[in-house]
Design a protein that fits this description.
Length: about 450
């Protein structure tokens, strides 16, 4: 009987519960299908610290080698370290991780050579089809000559590449608290930040895929509390929090206050534009702050607004030749990193900016954080289209509003904007509001929520 992969294969990756939804037998078929669809003669494979990751990634490697591909296993790594290996070695890659999901989940993020993403429309649907077919009819016939499986350590090369892109050698000494959440930041941070004028205070660096301290999802404010308290207790200059596979980084200032990912996007954009002679395209999604396109224009660059989601960002990066892109979810994309996302490189930029001047981080980022945002508010609704239509009817008739439907519904005036987007996987509407002051933002937020939740 063919495996049901409808709940396992998502828009951009494979993700599900082990062993309930998938196991090493299926992982081996995914390895074979990945080679068949990409036509690769060689690939690179890495994995995170989850208990099931070594077995799943090993099975994937065996499936790929059986179809004739030479496999380079890089072992424990962050997702952006796998992207580095794919770019530096010019090989398609597979990363075994479920990012910030709970311990019993695992998944695969796949890319073509040069870290080009594999999603539903770029090979993932074909891979799913082959795995379903082979799970029913049996594994494909092996190649006449199987591929080899070899090990290679890429951590030092990854760290050196990042350090080549941001010079931290001459910054003032900084005290940095880093919460790795028992994820892969505990593996990469010690090497990337070694021998710099930094005093690193480690939190939860022990690799433990059962996440004994808190979920490795810094987007949830509850998971930042330990870091916020520690930054204040240590009198530190900055706090950094990484998610489970360490491709996203969140920043906390010296007061223990979270720094908006939009402010980080604006700060890094200004630095990347300065590196490129004040010229270049910067990508931002439509729910990042107004601050981002303003700072980009002030820095000489060209802002380009996209839909939410890394596939849209990466597509626009490639189409426009953009030098940098940022999202509200703390994904940061760099042309000098094969257009892939790396929270670590964004963190180095923030450390360089902070250490290159004498003021505290809160003062530094204030220039990049000019408006008041609600953050993303999710509401369960019976009919997404009906509630969106009600909002369009309420605000569309007002003389000072403009509406666009690039992604959900965005309503804009000179003093505020909001966006309502339906979830693709749950009966939710997601609301983001931004205004010039807190009172206006709160009033608008409550108005729109009353319509959504009517």
């Amino acid at each position: 009987m063919a495996a049901d992969l409808s709940q396992l294969v998502k828009a951009y990756d494979v993700r599900g519960v082990v062993p309930d939804q998938w196991d090493e037998r299926l992982a081996e078929l995914f390895g074979a299908a990945f080679v068949r669809v990409t036509g690769a003669s060689a690939i690179v494979v890495g994995h995170d610290m989850r208990p099931s990751s070594p077995g799943l990634s090993g099975a994937f490697a065996r499936g790929a080698a059986a179809l004739g591909a030479d496999v380079t296993e890089i072992g424990l790594c962050s997702t952006d370290q796998l992207y580095y290996a794919s770019g530096a070695l010019d090989l398609p890659g597979a990363m075994f991780t479920a990012s910030h999901n709970p311990a019993r989940y695992n998944g695969i993020k796949m890319c073509r050579a040069g870290a080009a993403p594999v999603g539903q429309n770029t090979g993932l649907a074909d891979i799913r089809g082959l795995v379903e077919q082979w799970s029913e009819s049996g594994a494909p016939a092996p190649a006449p000559t199987p591929g080899t499986i070899t090990r290679r350590d890429t951590l030092d090369g990854y760290a050196a590449h990042l350090r080549d892109l941001v010079d931290l050698t001459s910054i003032r000494p900084l005290k940095v608290v880093v919460d790795a959440g028992n994820g892969m930041g505990g593996h990469t941070v010690p090497t990337v930040l070694a021998d710099l004028p930094l005093t690193v205070v480690p939190m939860y660096f022990e690799l433990d895929g059962t996440f004994p301290n808190h979920e490795a999802n810094p987007l949830d404010p509850a998971n930042l509390v330990d870091l916020q308290q520690r930054v204040k207790a240590e009198g530190a200059d900055i706090g950094l929090a990484f998610d489970g596979d360490a491709d996203r980084c969140f920043v906390v200032d010296e007061r223990g206050e979270p720094v908006s990912p939009s402010a980080v996007t604006a700060l890094v954009a200004s630095r990347e534009l300065a590196r490129n002679g004040g010229k270049g395209t910067i990508i931002h999604n439509l729910i990042t702050s107004w601050s981002v396109p303003e700072v980009v224009k002030e820095s000489g660059g060209t802002p380009v607004r996209t839909r939410v989601g890394h596939s849209f960002i990466k597509q626009e990066m490639a189409t426009t030749g953009a030098i940098f892109g940022g999202e509200h979810s703390a994904h940061y994309y760099f042309r000098d990193f094969w257009n892939a996302d790396t929270g670590m490189l964004a963190a180095l930029h923030v450390l360089a900016a902070l250490g290159g001047q004498d003021g505290p981080l809160s003062q530094l980022v204030a220039a990049y954080d000019r408006y008041v945002g609600s953050g993303e508010i999710n509401s369960t609704v019976a009919d997404q289209a009906d509630r969106t239509a009600a909002i369009r009817a309420e605000y569309g008739a007002r003389p000072d509003t403009t509406l666009d439907e690039l992604d959900g519904l965005t309503v804009t005036t000179p003093d505020w904007w909001f966006n309502v987007r339906p979830s693709n996987t749950e009966p939710l509407l997601r609301l983001n509001v931004e205004a010039k002051d807190a009172q206006t933002m709160e009033k608008l937020r409550d108005e729109v929520l009353a319509i959504i939740r009517a």
